[in-house]
Amino acid sequence: MMRFVCPQCKGGLAESGNAYGCATCARVFPVICGIPDFRLFADPYIGLEADRAKGQALEAATRGMSFANAVRHYYAITPDDPADLAERWTARALAEVAIAREMLAYSRGDGPLLDVGCSTGAALIAAGGGMGVDIAFRWLVLGQLRLREAGVAARLVCANAEHLPFADSMGARVISFDTLEHLRDAAQSLREMRRVGSSLLLTSNNRWAPLPEPHVHLWGVGWLPRRWQAPFVARRRPDLHPYGIQLRSAEEGRELARASGWVNARTEAAPLFAPQMGASARRVLALYRGLRLAPGMSLIAPRWMIRG
Ligand SMILES: [Zn+2]
Predict the structure, then answer these.
(1) Structure pTM?
(2) Domain 13-206+248-307 coded CATH 3.40.50.300
């Protein structure tokens, strides 16, 4: 249903052995652990070769494990990620399928589902199939395990959101959850989603939310001028990777989407789901649900969403 093209020149690809080759620009893209690697650049945390090696090692070490244990294993062999945050990130990964199931109700269109920034494929499990793209090869390897455990047949592809390996005519129903703020070039990524997509449902964490920054769990990061954010995080959490996340306001997100070809993009406060929370948190969420569409809520909501 989906044909791969060269992520660089969009030329046709020939499959040979364990690789795809581009006849136009002569690039070769390997298939490793059954996952084609169409990246033109690596994610900020690990190089291309090291990421592939880590994915292969993970595949061998997690064979026969449950997905939950495989995630725990991942953090156990990744001492760069501090234990307090690893615990949060693990809980979030495990809750993702239930959250994605709720979010998918907001997506429309009938093209093939394409999840940009799919991580371990939770939304594909919620949807019962589709195509997932992520820059982190090692997480896609865990995603394969997760899909297998859930009995869902979906395709995982390692690629840059800025250089999608799909033909223009794909007509995809594009979803992208909490990925925009991590992208090297958000505008180019949105143009790529427009090129291959017929509809868009995108969420992103809100810069102005009166809450701790959701990735590093520090108060006030988003409220600082952008050039102060990385030094601030580095001072408070010298144990973390350099802070390269760019949180945006709902309005910034909407303008970026419109300028990138999603001319009818609309923004609103995103629905929030917390499947594992206690009664008091559920009451706060019920209050939020009642106020979500009130004027101005997208200014301060923890997360905003774009539909286009
Ligand atoms: Zn090419």
Answers:
(1) 0.93
(2) no
